[in-house]
Amino acid sequence: MRTFKLIQGSLLAGRVTRRSTQLVSIHCFMDITLLVAASLVAVLAGLTLHWQHRWTVAFDRLESTRIQAYRLTESTAVMEQHWLRNTTQPVNLVPTRAINLVHIRHPASAEQPSPKVSISLFLSHLVSQRLRSGY
Fold it and tell me: d(Cα 29, Cα 36) in Å, to the nearest integer?
């Protein structure tokens, strides 16, 4: 019980107030300063947790975007390999080198006048042609 009386007696500011007003004002100032510091620590901890969560969400989105881009590249490669396996080279192609190629100059446009074709003749020619399937 004696400890309780000691603590209780020290918390009573009546005697201290009468003796030293400056000590009481410094004590009140320190109490307010400690409360402000504790509240600032709590606010900063909350902001830190908030921005850490935002960073984690953004990083997860970045990872999912990278995974999707990788899967798209992989599936495109698989499709290209399948298409290349099913295509064949024409029989009339012959392997050659660059030195065996012959360069033919483009004819001058002034020597050959372009023939004038009527639109109706061109459309009738288009309609009469058979459409080829595929690309």
Answer: 11
d(CA 11, CA 4) in angstroms, rounded, equals 11
Residue 39 neighbours by CB distance under 10 Å: 10
Instruction: Output the average pLDDT for the chain.
Output: 79
Q: How far apart are CA 103 and CA 54, in angstroms?
A: 63
**Taking the chain, what is the end-to-end CA distance rounded to the nearest angstrom?**
99
| Mean pLDDT calculated for residue range 127-134 | 67
- Residue linked to tokens 């410094």: 26
Model confidence at 74, pLDDT cuts 50, 70, 90, reads very high
Q: Is-contact 36 42, C-beta < 8 A?
A: no
Q: Do 43 and 32 touch, CB atoms closer than 8 A? A: no
Contact (CB, 8 A) for 43 and 50: no
Retrieve residue 88's tokens: 């064949």
Query: What is the identity of the amino acid at 38?
Result: A
Which positions ≥6 away from 16 have C-beta within 8 Å?
Answer: 23, 24
